[in-house]
Amino acid sequence: MAEVTDAAAYGLAALGGSIRALRKRQGLSVGALSQRADVSFGALSQLERGKGNPSFITLNKLAEALGMPLTQLMHGAHRRDDMVVRAGERQQLPPMGDAGDQPLRELLTPGMHASLQVIRTVLPRNFSNEGKAFRHLGMECVIVEAGLLSVTHGDRQVELGPGDAMTYECSTPHWWANAYDGETVVLGAVTPLEV
Questions:
Q1: What separation in angstroms does the CA of 142 have from each of 46, 103, 121, 161?
Q2: pLDDT digits (tens, 9 = 90+) for 83-103
Q3: Which domains does the chain have, with CATH numbers?
């Protein structure tokens, strides 16, 4: 068996961490992503722990199930500057709602496995992810740059305008709707917690 180099082990661990973080952001269990991607539970679990030797076909199935091109999934696994994210190098995040116009979601921090993630989201007109509410561990703070954002957090609904901010526990189901007749731009800071 070929020896695994430190660089290869780092790459596999980073890839596994990215897949785990993306899965959790979409509110999927290992079993749910395994079924969606048609990849065995054991293979996915092993990959998320930075183990194994996933095939190209397995990685492609996982990328499709997470709603992104394989190149984008792999890009997050490569070593990059751990302090600077250039405007043209932002990692795009998977869709947050059902079919139709999807928001542009870009990670402004260097990686999905960091203890702090800052995300810039551009919500198209009439967007809502009410049918796909988020629920995960951690805290989130959002601030509206432009437009109007309606945030539903549990039983509470709040409308935020430019400059308004809201901070909430992510373990309570929450969802967003664009309450503006154009695009709404939101900056969000998330402290995801591992389980």
A1: 34, 15, 10, 11
A2: 788 887 777 776 665 556 788
A3: 6-75 (1.10.260.40), 87-192 (2.60.120.10)
